Amino acid sequence: MVKAIKKAGKKNDFATIESEAKVIAANLDKIPDLFPKGSTSEKSRAKPAIWEKWDTFNQKRIAVKTAANELAEAAKAEDGQKVSSIVKGFGKKCGSCHRSFRKPRKKKKS
Length: 110
Fold this sequence. Notes:
With about 110 residues, this protein is mostly helical. The chain has a single domain, classed as Cytochrome c/b562 (Four Helix Bundle (Hemerythrin (Met), subunit A)). The protein is built from five helices and no strands. Helix 4 runs antiparallel to helix 5. The longest helix has 23 residues. It is elongated and about 40 Å long.
């Protein structure tokens, strides 16, 4: 989704940016239900740190949701400068949570 937003930003495709940002915000609302305490599995890339540092995890989720909503509003207003500004920091906000709370992908064996 972030890649789609960045690609749309290069084209000033505000409708796509708004739509993708709204999807991200909606998905972030699902996070607490998707990560009940101890919900790990072999297929999951979730680190135990999610539950050990739940408050931090949740604060990061809220920060990304806030940014996604701001991005959707800026795109709706077709404010290219604000969209660009938000997008620049958006990936870092998402990545911060992913680096802290998600295991890297397993490398495929050749």
